[in-house]
Amino acid sequence: MATFSLFAMGNPLLDIQVTEGEPLLEKYGLKPNDAVLANEQQLAIYDDIVKNWKVTYVAGGAAQNAARAAAYVLPEKSVMYTGCVGEDELADQLRAANAKEGVESAYQVAKGQRTGACAVVITGHHRSLCTTLQAAESFTPSHLSSPEIAPLIQNAKFFYVGGFFLTHGVESALELAKHASNAGKVYTLNLSAPFIPQFFKAQLQQVLPYVDILFGNESEAASYAEANGLPTSSVADIAQAFANLDKANPSRPRLVVITQGAESTIVASSTDQTPKVFAVQKLSAEQIVDTNGAGDMFAGGFLGAYVSGKPLEECVETGHALGAMCVQQVGPTLKFPKVKIF
C-alpha cells in the first residue's frame, strides 16, 4: 500500500458557479462575501441556477480544494482525501478531478443519497457560497477505522481538516486529532467561514487543543474574537490569542496563519509573541477573475511546502503563489501542466 504523507478530510461538494449574480443574492437573502449552509428557503437556489442561469461546474469542497493545492506542490502519491459522497455521477466527477490533480480519493459512499453541492454566486470580485451537504453529512467515524482507511491514517504524518466538517463530523475530526497528538504528528485545521466560530463554538473548542497549524482569514478571526469576548481591532492580536490557547501536545509550537485577501498575511506562533507580517504581491483588478477557493488554495500551498520541510517564509510564499494563480481562473483550479513553485 502506498504511503501518503498528507491525509485530508472534509465535505466533498460539486460547485455550481454563476456570475453577475446580484439578483440571486437578493432573492435568497445571501451576502456578497460569505459562506452559509442553505436554510429551507435557500434550497431552491440549486434548481433555479441550473434552469435559469449559465453555470460552470467545478470540483469543490474547501478541504478537497486544499488537498488538490497541496498535491500541486508535492510529489505524486502524497495526498489522500476522504469525505462522504453519494452513489451518483457527481461523485464520479469529483473522483476524476482529484485523479487529474494528483489526489487519491478515499470516499465513503452513502447509497441512495446525492453528493453535496455548493451554489457559488459571483458578483464582481466577491463570491457568496451557499451549501447543501447532502451525503457529506453522512460521514461516520467507522470509515476511519475500516481496513481500507486505517492503514492510511497510521502511515500519514500530516492531517488537514476543513472547519465546515465540524458542523456534523466533530467525532471524526477529534479521532484524527487525538491520533496525531498522541503520535507526534501534525494536525491542521481551517476555520473555513465566520459562522463556524460563531455557531459551532463548542465543536471548535473541542478540536482546538489538538491543532498544530490553524488557518483562517480576517473575517473568521474577527468572528472568533467576537464569540469569545476578545478585542477585535487587531488581526495580529487575535492570531496571537489563538496561538496561545492551551495545547494537548505542548512540545510542538502552534502556528496560526491568517490571510487578509490582497492585504498582508499574519503568522503567529506560541513560541514567539510577536506575529510576523508577510506582504502580498497585489494583482490588478483586470487580473482577478474569481476569488472562490483562493483561501483554500493558499492553505493547501502553504501545507504542501510545510510537508516538504520548507521554512515558514517559503510556505507563505507558496500559499500566496497558489492563491494568486487561483483568482486568475474560474473556480478553485490551478494551471496545468504544473508551474514550478520551488
From TrEMBL:
Name the needed cofactors. Answer: Mg(2+)
Is the keyword Protein transport assigned to this protein? no
- Spell out the catalytic residues: D296 (proton acceptor)
Q: Per UniProt, which keywords does this protein have?
A: ATP-binding, Kinase, Magnesium, Nucleotide-binding, Purine salvage, Transferase
Q: Which PROSITE patterns match?
A: PFKB_KINASES_2 (PS00584)
Tell me which domain of life the UniProt entry assigns to the organism this sequence originates from.
Eukaryota
Which CDD domains does the record associate with it? adenosine_kinase
Catalysis: reaction(s): adenosine + ATP = AMP + ADP + H(+)
Q: Which Pfam families match?
A: PfkB
InterPro entries named in the record:
Adenokinase (IPR001805), Carboh/pur_kinase_PfkB_CS (IPR002173), PfkB_dom (IPR011611), Ribokinase-like (IPR029056)
The membrane-spanning stretches of this chain are none
Pathway(s) where this gene product acts: Purine metabolism; AMP biosynthesis via salvage pathway; AMP from adenosine: step 1/1
What protein am I looking at?
Answer: Adenosine kinase
Lineage at the top is:
Eukaryota, Fungi, Dikarya, Basidiomycota, Agaricomycotina
